[in-house]
Amino acid sequence: MLQSLKYNKHELSLLKQRELLFVKLENNTEGADKSDNLGLSLFSEKIAEYNYPELIPEKLEILQVNLGYLCNQSCSHCHVDAGPDRRELMSLETLDLCLDLARKHAIPTIDITGGAPEMHPHFCYFVSQAHKQGVKEIIVRSNLTILVSHSKYEDMPKFFRDNQVRVVSSLPCYTAENTDKQRGDGVFEKSIAALKKLNAIGYGMAGSKLCLDLVYNPGGPFLAGEQSQLESDYKRELNDNFGIQFNSLFALNNLPINRFLEFLLKNGHYNKYMQTLVSAFNPATLSGLMCRNTISIDYQGYLYDCDFNQMLEMSIKDSSQKAIHIKDFNLEYLANRKILTAQHCYGCTAGAGSSCQGSVV
Q: Cα separation of 202 and 245, whole Å?
Protein backbone atom coordinates (compact mmCIF):
# COMPACT_ATOMS: atom_id res chain seq x y z
CA MET A 1 0.00 0.00 0.00
CA LEU A 2 2.69 2.50 0.96
CA GLN A 3 4.62 1.96 -2.27
CA SER A 4 1.62 3.02 -4.38
CA LEU A 5 1.30 6.46 -2.79
CA LYS A 6 1.50 9.43 -5.12
CA TYR A 7 2.69 12.90 -4.11
CA ASN A 8 1.93 16.30 -5.55
CA LYS A 9 3.84 19.54 -5.17
CA HIS A 10 2.25 20.63 -1.93
CA GLU A 11 0.92 17.76 0.11
CA LEU A 12 0.36 14.11 0.59
CA SER A 13 -3.28 13.35 -0.16
CA LEU A 14 -5.43 14.32 2.81
CA LEU A 15 -7.47 11.14 2.33
CA LYS A 16 -4.35 8.99 2.42
CA GLN A 17 -3.12 10.75 5.57
CA ARG A 18 -6.46 10.15 7.27
CA GLU A 19 -6.35 6.48 6.26
CA LEU A 20 -2.80 6.03 7.56
CA LEU A 21 -3.57 7.75 10.85
CA PHE A 22 -6.90 5.95 11.33
CA VAL A 23 -8.89 9.15 11.68
CA LYS A 24 -12.22 7.51 10.91
CA LEU A 25 -11.71 4.52 13.19
CA GLU A 26 -10.55 6.65 16.10
CA ASN A 27 -13.80 8.59 16.14
CA ASN A 28 -16.23 5.80 15.37
CA THR A 29 -16.14 3.48 18.38
CA GLU A 30 -18.89 1.17 17.19
CA GLY A 31 -17.22 -1.81 15.56
CA ALA A 32 -13.84 -0.10 15.34
CA ASP A 33 -10.63 -2.07 15.22
CA LYS A 34 -8.34 -1.86 18.22
CA SER A 35 -5.14 -1.57 16.19
CA ASP A 36 -3.98 0.11 13.00
CA ASN A 37 -2.49 -1.44 9.87
CA LEU A 38 0.90 -1.70 11.62
CA GLY A 39 -0.59 -3.65 14.51
CA LEU A 40 -0.17 -0.66 16.85
CA SER A 41 -2.80 0.16 19.45
CA LEU A 42 -5.17 2.92 18.46
CA PHE A 43 -4.53 6.02 20.51
CA SER A 44 -8.02 5.91 22.03
CA GLU A 45 -7.43 2.32 23.15
CA LYS A 46 -4.03 3.20 24.61
CA ILE A 47 -5.28 6.07 26.77
CA ALA A 48 -8.23 3.97 27.94
CA GLU A 49 -5.69 1.67 29.57
CA TYR A 50 -4.79 4.60 31.86
CA ASN A 51 -8.34 5.54 32.90
CA TYR A 52 -8.86 8.03 30.09
CA PRO A 53 -11.84 6.56 28.21
CA GLU A 54 -11.79 9.84 26.31
CA LEU A 55 -10.00 13.19 26.41
CA ILE A 56 -12.16 16.01 27.69
CA PRO A 57 -11.37 19.74 27.81
CA GLU A 58 -10.43 21.81 30.79
CA LYS A 59 -10.81 25.58 31.11
CA LEU A 60 -10.28 27.39 27.82
CA GLU A 61 -7.11 29.46 28.18
CA ILE A 62 -5.69 29.75 24.66
CA LEU A 63 -7.27 30.82 21.41
CA GLN A 64 -4.87 29.72 18.69
CA VAL A 65 -5.57 31.58 15.46
CA ASN A 66 -4.10 30.37 12.18
CA LEU A 67 -4.06 33.41 9.88
CA GLY A 68 -3.38 31.28 6.80
CA TYR A 69 -0.79 29.21 5.02
CA LEU A 70 1.17 31.92 3.19
CA CYS A 71 4.85 31.81 4.15
CA ASN A 72 8.19 32.97 2.78
CA GLN A 73 9.64 29.49 3.41
CA SER A 74 8.79 25.87 2.59
CA CYS A 75 10.32 23.90 5.44
CA SER A 76 10.71 20.15 5.05
CA HIS A 77 9.08 19.39 8.41
CA CYS A 78 6.11 21.78 8.11
CA HIS A 79 2.88 20.17 9.27
CA VAL A 80 0.92 23.13 7.87
CA ASP A 81 2.36 22.64 4.37
CA ALA A 82 2.87 26.42 4.20
CA GLY A 83 4.76 28.19 1.44
CA PRO A 84 5.10 31.27 -0.80
CA ASP A 85 2.45 30.04 -3.24
CA ARG A 86 -0.28 29.39 -0.67
CA ARG A 87 -3.09 31.94 -0.83
CA GLU A 88 -5.37 30.88 2.03
CA LEU A 89 -5.76 33.87 4.36
CA MET A 90 -8.21 34.70 7.15
CA SER A 91 -10.73 37.41 6.28
CA LEU A 92 -10.99 40.66 8.21
CA GLU A 93 -14.48 39.64 9.29
CA THR A 94 -13.17 36.41 10.83
CA LEU A 95 -10.31 38.26 12.52
CA ASP A 96 -12.86 40.53 14.18
CA LEU A 97 -14.89 37.51 15.27
CA CYS A 98 -11.77 36.11 16.95
CA LEU A 99 -11.24 39.40 18.79
CA ASP A 100 -14.88 39.49 19.87
CA LEU A 101 -14.64 35.91 21.09
CA ALA A 102 -11.52 36.59 23.17
CA ARG A 103 -13.14 39.65 24.72
CA LYS A 104 -16.52 38.06 25.43
CA HIS A 105 -15.04 35.01 27.17
CA ALA A 106 -12.00 36.74 28.69
CA ILE A 107 -9.62 34.26 27.06
CA PRO A 108 -6.20 35.22 28.45
CA THR A 109 -4.01 34.16 25.50
CA ILE A 110 -4.23 34.64 21.75
CA ASP A 111 -1.64 32.49 19.98
CA ILE A 112 -1.12 33.68 16.40
CA THR A 113 0.31 31.29 13.86
CA GLY A 114 0.48 30.55 10.13
CA GLY A 115 2.32 30.25 7.67
CA ALA A 116 4.21 33.38 8.45
CA PRO A 117 1.49 35.37 10.22
CA GLU A 118 3.37 38.65 9.68
CA MET A 119 2.63 38.34 5.93
CA HIS A 120 -1.13 38.60 6.49
CA PRO A 121 -2.31 42.03 5.26
CA HIS A 122 -4.26 42.64 8.49
CA PHE A 123 -1.71 41.17 10.90
CA CYS A 124 -0.78 44.48 12.53
CA TYR A 125 -4.44 45.42 12.90
CA PHE A 126 -5.23 42.12 14.60
CA VAL A 127 -2.31 42.31 17.03
CA SER A 128 -2.83 45.97 17.93
CA GLN A 129 -6.56 45.44 18.52
CA ALA A 130 -5.88 42.45 20.74
CA HIS A 131 -3.43 44.57 22.72
CA LYS A 132 -5.88 47.47 23.00
CA GLN A 133 -8.67 45.27 24.30
CA GLY A 134 -6.41 43.95 27.04
CA VAL A 135 -5.60 40.40 25.99
CA LYS A 136 -3.22 39.26 28.71
CA GLU A 137 -0.78 37.44 26.43
CA ILE A 138 -0.32 37.77 22.68
CA ILE A 139 1.94 35.13 21.15
CA VAL A 140 3.27 35.43 17.62
CA ARG A 141 4.92 32.36 16.11
CA SER A 142 7.56 33.78 13.81
CA ASN A 143 9.95 31.95 11.50
CA LEU A 144 12.48 34.79 12.10
CA THR A 145 13.59 35.10 8.48
CA ILE A 146 10.48 37.11 7.61
CA LEU A 147 11.82 39.90 9.84
CA VAL A 148 14.83 40.41 7.56
CA SER A 149 13.40 39.25 4.23
CA HIS A 150 11.90 42.54 3.03
CA SER A 151 11.93 46.21 3.99
CA LYS A 152 8.19 46.11 4.71
CA TYR A 153 8.88 43.90 7.75
CA GLU A 154 12.01 45.63 9.08
CA ASP A 155 10.07 47.52 11.78
CA MET A 156 8.18 44.43 12.93
CA PRO A 157 10.39 43.89 16.04
CA LYS A 158 9.49 47.40 17.25
CA PHE A 159 5.83 46.68 16.54
CA PHE A 160 6.13 43.53 18.64
CA ARG A 161 7.69 45.54 21.46
CA ASP A 162 5.05 48.28 21.35
CA ASN A 163 2.27 45.70 21.62
CA GLN A 164 4.03 43.55 24.26
CA VAL A 165 4.04 40.51 21.98
CA ARG A 166 5.66 37.31 23.15
CA VAL A 167 7.76 36.09 20.22
CA VAL A 168 8.09 32.33 19.74
CA SER A 169 10.52 31.52 16.95
CA SER A 170 11.52 28.35 15.17
CA LEU A 171 15.24 27.54 15.15
CA PRO A 172 15.73 23.79 14.72
CA CYS A 173 19.43 23.90 15.55
CA TYR A 174 22.19 26.25 16.70
CA THR A 175 24.33 25.31 13.68
CA ALA A 176 23.92 26.52 10.09
CA GLU A 177 24.29 23.06 8.58
CA ASN A 178 21.42 21.44 10.46
CA THR A 179 19.11 24.45 10.27
CA ASP A 180 19.56 25.00 6.54
CA LYS A 181 19.11 21.29 5.86
CA GLN A 182 15.63 21.44 7.35
CA ARG A 183 14.56 24.96 6.41
CA GLY A 184 16.53 25.96 3.31
CA ASP A 185 19.85 27.51 2.32
CA GLY A 186 20.70 30.74 4.12
CA VAL A 187 17.94 30.42 6.70
CA PHE A 188 20.32 30.13 9.66
CA GLU A 189 22.20 33.32 8.74
CA LYS A 190 18.94 35.25 8.36
CA SER A 191 17.61 33.81 11.63
CA ILE A 192 20.70 34.98 13.49
CA ALA A 193 20.30 38.46 12.00
CA ALA A 194 16.66 38.54 13.11
CA LEU A 195 17.52 37.37 16.63
CA LYS A 196 20.10 40.13 16.92
CA LYS A 197 17.47 42.70 15.93
CA LEU A 198 15.13 41.36 18.60
CA ASN A 199 17.88 41.36 21.24
CA ALA A 200 18.80 44.94 20.30
CA ILE A 201 15.40 46.23 21.44
CA GLY A 202 15.29 44.11 24.59
CA TYR A 203 13.76 40.79 23.55
CA GLY A 204 15.20 37.86 25.47
CA MET A 205 17.57 40.03 27.48
CA ALA A 206 18.12 39.70 31.22
CA GLY A 207 15.81 42.01 33.16
CA SER A 208 13.55 42.67 30.19
CA LYS A 209 9.84 41.87 30.15
CA LEU A 210 9.99 41.23 26.40
CA CYS A 211 9.91 37.45 26.02
CA LEU A 212 11.73 35.63 23.21
CA ASP A 213 11.42 31.86 23.06
CA LEU A 214 12.92 29.44 20.55
CA VAL A 215 11.50 26.20 19.21
CA TYR A 216 13.51 23.07 18.46
CA ASN A 217 12.22 20.15 16.48
CA PRO A 218 14.27 17.12 15.37
CA GLY A 219 15.79 17.02 11.91
CA GLY A 220 14.92 13.39 11.33
CA PRO A 221 12.74 10.44 12.40
CA PHE A 222 13.56 10.57 16.09
CA LEU A 223 12.16 12.16 19.24
CA ALA A 224 13.17 15.53 20.64
CA GLY A 225 15.92 15.41 23.24
CA GLU A 226 15.53 16.48 26.86
CA GLN A 227 14.30 20.07 26.83
CA SER A 228 16.33 21.57 29.66
CA GLN A 229 19.58 20.12 28.30
CA LEU A 230 18.80 21.38 24.80
CA GLU A 231 18.03 24.82 26.23
CA SER A 232 21.39 24.90 27.99
CA ASP A 233 23.16 23.88 24.79
CA TYR A 234 21.34 26.50 22.73
CA LYS A 235 22.04 29.27 25.22
CA ARG A 236 25.73 28.41 25.40
CA GLU A 237 26.26 28.07 21.65
CA LEU A 238 24.19 31.08 20.58
CA ASN A 239 25.73 33.34 23.22
CA ASP A 240 29.32 32.20 22.69
CA ASN A 241 29.18 32.33 18.89
CA PHE A 242 26.76 35.18 18.20
CA GLY A 243 26.10 37.02 21.48
CA ILE A 244 22.43 36.05 21.30
CA GLN A 245 20.18 35.63 24.34
CA PHE A 246 16.67 34.24 24.68
CA ASN A 247 14.30 33.16 27.44
CA SER A 248 13.22 29.56 26.93
CA LEU A 249 13.54 26.73 24.45
CA PHE A 250 10.56 24.57 23.52
CA ALA A 251 11.39 21.04 22.34
CA LEU A 252 8.71 19.62 20.03
CA ASN A 253 8.31 16.22 18.44
CA ASN A 254 7.54 16.11 14.74
CA LEU A 255 4.05 14.80 14.11
CA PRO A 256 3.42 12.51 11.13
CA ILE A 257 1.38 15.01 9.13
CA ASN A 258 1.82 16.64 5.71
CA ARG A 259 5.48 17.19 4.73
CA PHE A 260 6.99 15.23 7.61
CA LEU A 261 4.68 12.30 6.90
CA GLU A 262 5.67 12.51 3.24
CA PHE A 263 9.33 12.47 4.27
CA LEU A 264 8.76 9.38 6.42
CA LEU A 265 7.00 7.52 3.63
CA LYS A 266 9.42 8.44 0.88
CA ASN A 267 12.41 7.37 2.95
CA GLY A 268 10.91 4.20 4.40
CA HIS A 269 10.83 5.51 7.97
CA TYR A 270 7.07 5.60 8.57
CA ASN A 271 6.65 2.21 10.25
CA LYS A 272 9.66 2.62 12.53
CA TYR A 273 8.76 6.19 13.50
CA MET A 274 5.20 5.25 14.43
CA GLN A 275 6.54 2.35 16.49
CA THR A 276 8.95 4.76 18.19
CA LEU A 277 6.10 7.11 19.11
CA VAL A 278 3.92 4.31 20.48
CA SER A 279 6.79 2.72 22.42
CA ALA A 280 7.59 6.08 24.03
CA PHE A 281 3.98 6.76 25.07
CA ASN A 282 3.96 8.48 28.46
CA PRO A 283 0.60 8.53 30.31
CA ALA A 284 1.87 11.38 32.52
CA THR A 285 1.51 13.70 29.53
CA LEU A 286 -2.26 13.23 29.20
CA SER A 287 -3.23 15.76 31.85
CA GLY A 288 -1.19 18.51 30.19
CA LEU A 289 -1.99 18.09 26.50
CA MET A 290 -2.54 21.40 24.74
CA CYS A 291 -5.82 20.25 23.18
CA ARG A 292 -7.36 20.35 26.64
CA ASN A 293 -7.05 24.13 27.19
CA THR A 294 -6.90 25.36 23.59
CA ILE A 295 -9.24 25.97 20.69
CA SER A 296 -7.63 26.23 17.26
CA ILE A 297 -9.30 28.34 14.54
CA ASP A 298 -8.46 27.90 10.87
CA TYR A 299 -8.34 30.70 8.30
CA GLN A 300 -11.98 30.08 7.38
CA GLY A 301 -13.13 30.37 11.00
CA TYR A 302 -13.80 26.71 11.78
CA LEU A 303 -12.92 25.24 15.18
CA TYR A 304 -10.52 22.41 16.03
CA ASP A 305 -9.09 20.79 19.14
CA CYS A 306 -5.56 21.64 17.99
CA ASP A 307 -3.52 22.86 15.04
CA PHE A 308 -2.64 19.28 14.07
CA ASN A 309 -6.28 18.20 13.88
CA GLN A 310 -6.85 21.28 11.75
CA MET A 311 -4.40 19.99 9.14
CA LEU A 312 -6.27 16.66 9.01
CA GLU A 313 -9.63 18.49 8.80
CA MET A 314 -10.75 16.87 12.05
CA SER A 315 -13.05 19.75 12.93
CA ILE A 316 -15.11 20.06 16.09
CA LYS A 317 -18.69 19.19 15.20
CA ASP A 318 -22.06 20.03 16.70
CA SER A 319 -24.70 17.49 17.69
CA SER A 320 -25.77 17.13 14.04
CA GLN A 321 -22.14 16.42 13.00
CA LYS A 322 -21.79 19.78 11.28
CA ALA A 323 -18.43 21.54 11.55
CA ILE A 324 -18.68 24.40 14.05
CA HIS A 325 -17.81 27.89 12.82
CA ILE A 326 -16.69 30.67 15.12
CA LYS A 327 -20.03 32.41 14.46
CA ASP A 328 -21.69 29.52 16.29
CA PHE A 329 -19.24 29.39 19.20
CA ASN A 330 -20.90 27.89 22.27
CA LEU A 331 -18.57 27.64 25.27
CA GLU A 332 -20.84 25.33 27.25
CA TYR A 333 -21.12 22.87 24.36
CA LEU A 334 -17.38 22.97 23.72
CA ALA A 335 -16.57 22.42 27.39
CA ASN A 336 -18.47 19.12 27.26
CA ARG A 337 -17.18 17.82 23.93
CA LYS A 338 -15.00 14.78 23.34
CA ILE A 339 -11.60 15.74 21.94
CA LEU A 340 -10.97 14.01 18.61
CA THR A 341 -7.91 11.76 18.43
CA ALA A 342 -6.05 9.59 15.93
CA GLN A 343 -2.61 8.00 15.61
CA HIS A 344 -0.80 11.32 15.17
CA CYS A 345 -1.67 12.09 18.81
CA TYR A 346 1.11 9.72 19.86
CA GLY A 347 3.50 12.51 18.84
CA CYS A 348 2.23 14.70 21.68
CA THR A 349 2.44 11.93 24.28
CA ALA A 350 5.84 10.44 23.44
CA GLY A 351 8.67 10.89 25.92
CA ALA A 352 8.30 14.15 27.83
CA GLY A 353 5.37 15.04 25.61
CA SER A 354 5.07 17.81 23.07
CA SER A 355 2.94 20.92 22.80
CA CYS A 356 3.13 24.42 21.36
CA GLN A 357 4.62 25.39 24.74
CA GLY A 358 7.24 22.63 24.61
CA SER A 359 7.54 19.54 26.79
CA VAL A 360 4.47 18.56 28.78
CA VAL A 361 6.18 16.87 31.75
A: 10
Give the residue with greater pLDDT, 8 vs 328: 328
How is the chain split into domains, by residue range? 2-349
179-217: buried (b, 16+ CB within 10 Å) or exposed (e) per residue? bbbbbbeebbebbbebbebbbeeebbbeeeebbbbbbbb
12 or 304, which is more confident: 304
Please give the single-letter amino acid code of residue 40: L
Contact between residue 81 and residue 311 where contact means Cβ atoms under 8 Å apart: yes
What is d(CA 102, CA 78) in angstroms, rounded to the nearest whole number? 28
pLDDT at 2 over 50: no
The topology under which CATH files domain 2-349 is: TIM Barrel (3.20.20)
